[in-house]
Amino acid sequence: MEQNETPSAKKPVGTADQRLGTAPLLPLIFSLALPTALAQLVNLLYNIVDRVYVGHIPGSGSLALAGLGVTYPIIVLITAFSNLVGMGGAPRASVAMGRGDYKTAEKVLGNCITLLVVLSVVLSVGFTVFGESILMLFGASENTLPYAMSYLRIYLMGTLFVQFTMGMTPFITNQGFAKTSMATTCIGAICNIALDPVFIFGLNMGVRGAALATILSQAVSAVWVLWFFLGKRSVLRIRKHNFLPEGRIMALILSLGVSPFIMNATECLVQLVFNTGAAKYGGDDAVAIMSILFSVAQIAQLPIQGFCQGVQPIISYNFGARKFDRVRSTFMTTLKLSLGVAVAVVGAVELFPHLFLGLFSSDAGLIQLGIAPLRIYLLGFAFMGAQSACQQTFLGLGEAKISMFIALLRKVILLLPLALILPGVFGLLGGSQLLGLYVAEPVSDLISASTCTIIFFAVEWKKLKPAPRADG
């Protein structure tokens, strides 16, 4: 049981605050970051498990998998809006808590809930009306569009559940309740794992069953989150008067949240370019392989991002309390651990690519076609541990502009142009245009991770001078 599960009833300060500022650093990092990393990995199961099951549907698995692949940019965009709110608001609330300003922290929480509800309605209506046209833009063909639309129509019914769960979970983590945050995603993922085979195979619903299982699971997670904030354990309380939008608070939330939003939203654009490129140069099989590459990349990347996000409350709280030496120590520990994990993940993919591909397809031909692309596509991920550590630290310190630049650098400035240019370059040189498409990812990863690390140590590190010792 978490030590901070019972905050004081007399004042809005619990042992969560004391632990963030005073507990031994390494055990504290692991107590917050590991559950968050596991939660991110488990959260992947909402869509990853769908692809695993759908890819093994007898007779139509490859086409159905390609259909789900072209819906994924829309799902990423929905997630991006939840991160705009949750990852923009939670660090602001955490810094306010570090200063002892719980009134502002709760105002941020209430305004975030309002934003999430409004965005859910707008996104559901917009994608329902224009979904078919968007899917064709994202690389759907006449063969894969029916599968994509069958999944998307049902998935959009649960947009509110997705937005609320993902947008509010960072507020749970930033109060020090990492295990409760992890339970939020674990509950939904377990439900999804259990319901998917029932609906997909047992009731013979195919991709519609996968979507139905997903939104029912997300509804369970949303109820769990609401129950937490209405209960007695939360340091921050949901209060009706805080739902009223306040311009200053909204600006603070959106200015910081725009960086993680761009990171996710540009992922949508990246997948659009990669899906259409794969369809152009390799057809439906290449689109199916691209769906697998995106899935494996997520499996590799999100746990590390989750680990760094779990450390963020320590950075935000201690930055607000002006304990800069503790902020520096937290960052360095996070940097070393995330780099080590990233290198280990890349090693596993390079040595055993067929095992990762086999998770998503039983088609031996498709697996063989995917081995070389997977090895190339994931190669640059070895450097992404450094970028994740720097990126999340920028967010924790409230450095919205720098964080936004780094987010734009990797996806918009580097990866998108490279994905458009390199296939043509490889073609002119007599090579495979598909190979040029795959190479764009590791080149972008290397340049952006190096730039992010240099900026952090050249700019931010110098600002975080250790506090002078009391003994002089």
TrEMBL record:
Q: Which GO terms describe its biological process?
A: response to antibiotic
**What is the recorded membrane topology of this protein?**
Multi-pass membrane protein
Indicate the transmembrane segments per the record.
20-42, 62-87, 108-130, 150-172, 184-203, 209-230, 251-274, 286-304, 337-360, 366-386, 407-429, 435-459
Signal peptide interval? none
Predominant place of localization: membrane
Assigned GO CC terms: plasma membrane
Q: Where is it localised?
A: Cell membrane
Decide whether keyword Cell membrane is in the record: yes
Which Pfam families does the UniProt entry name for this protein? MatE (PF01554)
Report whether Nucleus shows up as a keyword of the record.
no
Database matches in InterPro entries? MATE_fam, MATE_MepA-like, MATE_MepA_subfamily, MdtK-like
A molecular function (GO) term: antiporter activity
- Give UniProt keywords alphabetically: Antibiotic resistance, Cell membrane, Membrane, Transmembrane, Transmembrane helix, Transport
Family affiliation? Belongs to the multi antimicrobial extrusion (MATE) (TC 2.A.66.1) family. MepA subfamily.
UniProt cross-references to NCBIfam families, sorted A to Z: matE (TIGR00797)
Q: Per its record, how is this protein called by name?
A: Multidrug export protein MepA
